[in-house]
Design brief:
Elements (H helix, E strand, L loop, with lengths): L18 H7 L18 E3 L4 E4 L5 E4 L5 E3 L1 H9 L3 H14 L4 H13 L3 H14 L4 H13 L3 H14 L4 H13 L3 H14 L4 H13 L3 H14 L4 H13 L3 H14 L4 H10 L13 H13 L18
Antiparallel strand pairs: 1-4, 2-3
């Protein structure tokens, strides 16, 4: 997660704010990404436990167990999609015991374990999926995320680099590479990765947000505005984007627009305390009359034109070809 607590820097040469305002702004922090994993395709089977009956001689006569009844994948998927992650983890644990050779079973076990808070099992399951299918890009990406959460960015870089060699046309791969570079404090490389992701998917709002956060950390607030303006234009209902836009506006001295952005974040999530506190802080502040005015819609459109004008050369190999059994 990226955090920032720097004072205001106004590249438009706006008048300096008061010392009290600088102290207040020192408490402003930015929010980072929340990336959801993709689901795989698989089937789930539940194993029956054999039982026995006693005889007059004291011997136990085995009773034939009921046939193992395979459960369709959709049941396990439904448990995962409905956020019943512990149940999904149990189902996919049973599945990989019965079909250990299928990479998708291990992949779904990894997702379910990760979402249930078990990073150890998640890592093990993704590694098992990759042992069976080294080109399983989804496992590489989600293993990267687990390693990042575990504070191991160097190991994460190895995994996402492999994913990049397999699929260089994926915006998700480049975005995740950007996260890895960011964790390694290689900010220039991170920005390049985010821009590459956007050149492949001009609507990748998380790359816009993540790239803007690096710029905010570097006190390049005006440079962060176009990306955040575009992100909030595409996804106005994401409070994190609105809050980060508010931070960039506030630190560039545009308090009226900052209040609007913070207000939009609070309107979506009234419990978002960072935005609530920031809104209260800027509501009484006035823009200086000599401040250069901006239009967020124009900034967003210019950013989009710039991204769509980028030309990249990428290649893609067939990946994730092992599909679950039907």
């Amino acid at each position: 997660m990226l955090r920032s607590g720097r004072s205001i820097h106004n590249s438009d040469r706006a008048p300096l704010v008061t010392a009290a305002l600088l102290i207040a702004l020192a408490t402003v922090t930015a929010c980072t990404t929340r990336e959801e994993p993709d689901g795989g395709r698989s089937e789930v089977a539940v194993v029956s436990t054999p039982v026995g009956t006693g005889t007059s001689s004291g011997e136990v006569t085995p009773v034939p167990s009921a046939p193992v009844m395979p459960v369709r994948y959709e049941e396990g998927e439904q448990a995962f999609q409905e956020k019943r992650y512990f149940e999904a983890k149990e189902k996919f644990t049973s599945y990989v015991e019965q079909r250990p050779g299928n990479s998708w079973g291990h992949y779904m076990l990894g997702l379910s374990a990760w979402k249930s808070g078990d990073r150890v099992l998640a890592e093990s399951a993704f590694v098992s999926a990759l042992e069976r299918d080294p080109k399983h890009v989804k496992s590489l990406l989600n293993l990267t995320r687990v390693l990042l959460e575990d504070g191991r960015p160097r190991e994460a870089r190895e995994r996402v680099t492999t994913a990049l060699t397999l699929d260089s046309t994926s915006a998700e791969v480049h975005r995740l590479m950007g996260r890895v570079y960011s964790e390694l404090k290689q900010h220039s490389e991170a920005i390049v990765s985010y821009r590459m992701a956007l050149s492949l998917d001009p609507t990748d709002v998380w790359s816009m947000n993540n790239m803007a956060l690096i710029l905010i950390q570097q006190d390049r607030h005006d440079e962060a505005l176009p990306a955040l303006a575009r992100a909030t234009q595409l996804e106005p209902g994401v409070p994190v984007f609105q809050n980060n836009l508010g931070i960039a506006l506030e630190r560039s001295g545009r308090f009226t627009l900052a209040a609007q952005a913070y207000g939009a974040a609070v309107a979506v999530d009234s419990g978002y305390q960072k935005a609530v506190m920031s809104l209260a802080r800027v509501q009484s502040l006035k823009d200086h009359p000599t401040l250069v005015p901006i239009e967020l819609a124009s900034l967003a459109e210019a950013f989009d034109r710039g991204i769509r004008g980028m030309v990249v050369g990428v290649t893609k190999e067939p990946t994730d070809t092992t599909r679950p059994p039907r």
